Amino acid sequence: MRSILKWSRENLFATRMNAVMSVLSIWLVYVAIEGVFSWALINASFIGTDKASCAANPHGACWPFVTAKLNQFVYGNYPMGEQWRVNIVFALGAFGLGLLMTKRVSFKKEVAVLMLTVYPVLTFILLSGGFLGLSYVETNQWGGLLVTLVIAVTGIVVSLPLGILLALGRRSELPIIRIMSIGFIEFWRGVPLITVLFMASVMLPLFLPEGMNFDALLRCLIGVSMFASAYMAEVIRGGLQAIPKGQYEAAKSLGLSYWKSMRLIILPQALVVSIPGIVNTFIGLFKDTTLVMIVGIFDLLGIISFHFTDPNWTSPQVPITGFVFAGLVFWVFCFAMSHYSKSVERRFSVTGENK
Amino acid sequence: MNFLKWPGVKVSKVGLFSFVSFFLFLALAHLQSAKADTTLDLVKKRGELSCGVSQGLQGFSAPDDKGRWHGIDVDFCRAVAVAVLGDAEAVKIVPLSAKVRFTALQSGEIDLLARNTTWTMHRDTALGIQFVGVNYYDGQGFIVRKDIGVTNARELDGASICVNAGTTTELNVADFFRSNGMDYEISSYEKSEEAVAAYDAGRCDAYTTDQSGLYAQRQRLIDPDAHMVLPDVISKEPLSPVVRQGDDVWADVVRWVHYAMLNAEELGVNAQNVDKLQESINPSIRRLLGVEGAYGESLGLDNKWAARIIRKVGNYGESFDRNLGAGSQLKIERGLNALWSNGGLQFAPPIR
User: Which of residues 204-223 of B touch A (CB under 8 A)?
Assistant: First the structure.
């Protein structure tokens, strides 16, 4: 108690100006938090099955909307009886990531390799089905958080290796490879993602013969991956340029081949330098997934706003509650990503300055 | 043409020509056979109807807690499916944004578009699509607070109106007030939610959009019962299901599904009494239910097509009531959508 008083006297109320500012800021924080608090908890409705249960609290959140629709928000229209498949995918993903994040696990490399090779295949088999006795679930039944994660994770997993290759290609001395890489990067960076998705879903079908369609979700996955790869390539190029020339020359003088010098000397340093940029791109990509709403795929945000039209739930507080919920979920994922990136940075730091 | 000079392989030009033309022929034959299939054949072969609807619009296509679709447009999809395939659940509902809806239809991604689409001359003539019949007569209207004492739109002189910016609704309002020599003040908002919120906060005397939308938005207001939708309609918005142009067989099927639902209402046939009425002596009912004549067969279906629609989906009145009318949250009056015999515009040619 004493130390708190001492600390606040030294830090909050040192001078008169300081004291005024402190009181003012504490009051501001109180006002903001009090409003949110009373909206989300004190004035809110918690139990019920339709909008009538929220009518009693017109100035508070309508949480029953979220609880009643939670299954929809997580799985979309994925058939009830088959949702265990999605759960397995979620659980495996969480387990793998957990292993990667735990400090004392010594077989991280093996886990990472499994996560990047076996896990995607397994995910595809489990989610899509159609063989091994699993019933086929069309992608137009997928929705909600499931779709958001599928798009984001695919984008992340594809864009990192592709981005590395493109970044190396852009700095290559072979003119054709360089020109092709530059062309690819500048093309995808030059068009907005919304245009890419729109082209994929509106223009592409017109070029294909009538009756031939390929999956709308797949189209989005390809578009998002290409788009993210171009951005990733530039982030990694920044990392490559930050490596002193001496490192390249040293690698050469050791007689290492191009791939060996990249793999052993340059990339390990360049990637660590670009971790903040890489994670930044990942977070951006995660939030960009909401754009698939315009091509008729219901991601988390899409399915939440879709359910605003349910006649049993049209009340003034429902949309606000829904958007706040969506914001919370997105925040949790993005915050977890940035937090994880910090720990990775610390672990891989070559110079040790972040330790 | 390097491959002509492959060492050890001699390809005569005639041989190559016949080789290539053989594949061209195959491709052409394939195209021909693909063209010969009507949408009706394709749907039957696939065993599933692919039906485009809006991405959530109260009363037309909206989800419940389980994610099941409800609405008058969704009902129409199910009616077509049950008529053609005998199963009202054999529908793949494809939610489409306003921008992609026609492309999805043209590219064959969907067989039928039932997406509260306004029938206009431009769309009908320029887009390669065909409107089959109005399943909901909508029109732009106004919602006002009951306590301002306005009972029709002519009394809105000097009112301030909330609208969505950049839509035709804004133009319609301007036309309406100018042609009636009335003063008005417009506040436009980028999104409909903002416009509704502004109206609810008392910043405008009235909010305007299509009437079905007004009924839906009314429920978003803090006290829905304190507001009323004025009876006047200032623009025509006939909403119709759409099919691809050039497939008359399929257009006939879809059109007559709509007419069958209307005829059923007119004849008093509904989901409850449809089985009993199989023994009706009324010849119109007997023809509708396929007891007499072969009207279904001439459509390329079987004769119980309409009976199935009524049993599984109901007649037009039932569908309207359940989704938009008194039996729903929206409580929209039948108005223009009443049968012609009740003073509305819904009129179906007879089945005979």
Answer: 216, 219-222
In this predicted complex, what is the ipTM?
0.80
CATH (one of 3.40.190.10, 3.10.310.10, 3.40.50.2300, 3.10.129.10) for B139-236: 3.40.190.10
Domain assignment present for A49: no
Task: Give the span between the Cα atoms of A9 and A17, in whole angstroms.
Answer: 13
Chain B residue with minimum CA distance to A316 = B220
The verdict on residue A52 lying in a domain is: no
Q: Structural domain of residue A158, as residue ranges?
A: 71-353
Domain B39-135+240-342 in CATH 3.10.450.50? no
What gap in Å lies between CA A251 and CA A257, rounded to an integer? 8
Count of the separate structural domains present in chain A:
1
Q: Find residue A144's DSSP bridge partners.
A: A299
Q: Do A314 and B219 touch (CB under 8 A)?
A: yes
**A306 and B63: CB-CB below 8 Å?**
yes
Å from B267 to nearest chain A CA?
A: 30
Domain ranges for chain B: 39-135+240-342, 139-236
Q: CA of A335 to nearest chain B CA: how many angstroms apart?
A: 29
A213 within some domain: yes
Of the listed ranges A151-160, A173-182, A313-322, the least confidently predicted one is: A313-322
Query: What backbone phi and psi angles, to 5 degrees, belong to B161?
Result: -120, 130
Secondary structure class of B95 (helix, strand, coil): strand
Can you give the pTM of this predicted structure?
0.84
Low-confidence ranges of chain B (pLDDT < 70): 1-36, 166
Q: Are residues A206 and B109, on separate chains, in Cβ contact within 8 Å?
A: no
